[in-house]
Amino acid sequence: MSLGDEHGHGDMARSDDPYGGGQTRTRLPDRAGDPYGGARRGSRSPSRSLVTVVAVVVLLIAAIAFANRGGGGSSAADSAGGDTGPKAAATAPTGKHPVTTKTAGLPSGFAHDQQGAQSAAANYSVALGSAEMFNTEGRHRIVNTVYAPDVAARRQTDLDNAYSNEKFLASIGLDKKGSAPAGQTFVSRVAPVGTKIASLSGDSASVEVWYTSLFGLSGQASTNPVSESWYTTTYRLTWVDNDWKVTDFQQKDGPVPVGRDQRASTADDMTKAVEEYGGFTYAR
């Protein structure tokens, strides 16, 4: 198991890393006064291709509006009673509320169905990608809660070895206890964008979670400012003790959206956001 390179997570064990071995790329400060420095991503000038895309989108919207306006003639499919309406998106809301029960401070008691499996995977990805994983007590609580009992014990040892590796911790700017330097805030947060069922059979499920990850140190002296990455993790779940639990997972990069030309926030603004904005309990 190779740990800690200059990019952050490095090659932390693929199946043992909550990010699945994903890397966090470090963006060095552009201005000495602020590690975020108000630096902008490389500017993107409008191009012919962008204009073409916009034009196509406008035409598409117009075409859809025309096709769906009232008073038009009936098509053959309409006459035959065919369903030509738009299909529900894969992550369309179902109206079911998130779970209200918790175990060791984490959402629990998910339904024994597709929606329950997806909600469990989304919530577990948030916990496994949190800054608490870098604290021994927090890590043990999370692992013992989200993993199946027969998996948690052996997984715990691997994760303890990974997260307590001083070389790895130093590479991401933390001390040997996993704490940030004075005046800085360690940020490790996952925000799921969508989920889908890959397979479901009885007490076994495979769920894909697409999410964005924020990782880095927020503070005036940080040389590893908070950056954004995108991943999709496939969680293998099993139904045990009346709940879904993780048995294994695999992670891959992306899909990654095109970045906007937005000014990076200052260290103070980033720290304030992390401290003031809480996370969510997810449900389908």
Overview of the molecule:
The protein is an alpha+beta fold. It has one domain: Nuclear Transport Factor 2, Chain: A, CATH 3.10.450. It is 29% helix and 21% strand. The strands form 2 sheets. Strands 3-4-5-6 form a 4-stranded antiparallel beta sheet. Helix 4 runs antiparallel to helix 5. The longest helix has 21 residues. It is globular. The relative contact order is 0.19. The N terminus is likely disordered.
Tally of domains: 1
Q: In oligomeric terms, what are we looking at? A: single chain
Biggest sheet features:
4 strands, antiparallel
CATH architecture: Roll
Radius of gyration: 22 Å
Classify the helix fraction into a percent range: 25-40%
Overall SS class: alpha+beta
